[in-house]
Amino acid sequence: MELFLLLFVSFLPFFEIKDTIYSYAYLDNLLSNFRAPYNYSIKSLAFYSTPIYSNLLVFKGYNIYSPSLGGTLPEENLVLFDGIPLINPMLGYQELSLIPANLIGIAEVLHSSSPISGLTGIGGVINLIPLKNPLEVKVSNLRKELKLGIGPFKDLSLTVFHETFTDSFPIEYENVTLWVKNTHDKKTGFLAKFSQGTVLVIKRKAGAPGPLGSLSTGERDELSAGSNFNFSLKKCNLQLSSNYTLQTYTSSGTSDIHKTLFLRGVIKGKEVETGANLYGANSTKIGNHIIPEIFGILGIKRMLTQKTELTATINLIYNPTFKTLFPNPSISLTNNLKFDLFSFLTVSLNHRNPTLNELYWPEDNFARGNPELKPERSFNIDAGLRKVSPKSYLNLFVFFKKINNGILWVQEDKYVPKNFASLSHKGAGLEAVFKPRKDLIYAEFSLNLQDSRLKGTPFIYRPNLTLSSSLGMGPTKIELSYIGKRPERPNSTKMLPPVWMINLSMEKSFTLGGQNLAVRAGVENLLNKNYEIVRGYPLPGRELFFEISVNRRM
Asked: Whole-model pTM?
């Protein structure tokens, strides 16, 4: 199974790319008019339980498990699961560890997407696509996973799943063996897919670990229920989406209850769409708050020449809480330089509203909210070259994000969210896939160079160099990932050391009863490296796994 996937995308919730994209995994022939005007990629996660990407960094321990795209804050990215918006109005995003590792098959990444999504997306959109294996069992020294799919029956298919993570694990920290505890995680749920949409329900009980050496640990009981439906009307399409979360957090004998609700309704025509979003919370911490907003999007595609296409989008969002109308325009150009070589350029303005926590968190011993916060504004540029051929794929890109009125929790007498003067992210990346011999040899490589600065000083935890690569030869696969040095503290020269990860796996496939049966075994973190993405949150060492799955024939 190849790591890098490209496929034809004609319609996705919240944004639309009318393109032809080649799939190494699912298609045997090349569809070559690759006209994506956006910086867009798809990665398979079939062999990762703790993935490291070159352009998408996951901060484990920093708000538990949160994504950064192109250096942005987690609140500045939109995370979807099969089109379901995983939005927590208190946090601004949904913690990614809520989704079981055995449920995610593919991650789509679309950079700088606020103008075309109608939602937060200064960094971009991350859409997690579920695996379609009807049966999968995976065991390791750290986790147990089970997934069972049923159907389809009259356009309905159901997947039930269960995953548990170990209660504690040993690490070597500054030449001392320590046990990291209270990191257990048990989740159960189901995924229902209909012809008109998707429903996802997850129930989880987990520890909430504090930094290494900290006593601030607790227990979390969580329920998440999300949905996304699409209905075809006479001349338009109706989209209805929702995400509800209930979290009970217990620490030192006291409990806090947080309920959040996100609702979205969109009516979409050929070039125009309009809709409304509702952000709400009922919490023992911040009380009851509701923030509505309405928006309208106009999108136009035109061929300027035989080889050059223009995509222009304007997204107007009105939020009565901030009494402001935000115009978010986007202009994209794509040019066919040769048969299989395209250039793309996108320039856009984006914005993000403050989260309910940032606005209304009550004053306690550590922090307080700031109801005077202003929404963030950003200027984004994405450009690059993309080449597609039957045996290779190459994407070379540069990006720049300039964020004004950016929101950051700063330490005064207590931690307080404030609008800081300027935050910028700039960088370049390379993604390549080579497949010289079908089903025998393939290689994937991606590299990201980045410079993130807050008021001219390096931004905390953002590495200058990140790479990931894999080499497959028959049933054997080797993966190598690297995260470079990154600032450990604000306004400090102290750096966290680089992270090297090596994974090794072998797979054997059989045909049994008309189904494809795959047996896979391997090791993640082969060298048993002790590492942390952010300071104070060491992560597990070597993980040995064994997996059996049934794959539907394509």
From this structure: 0.88
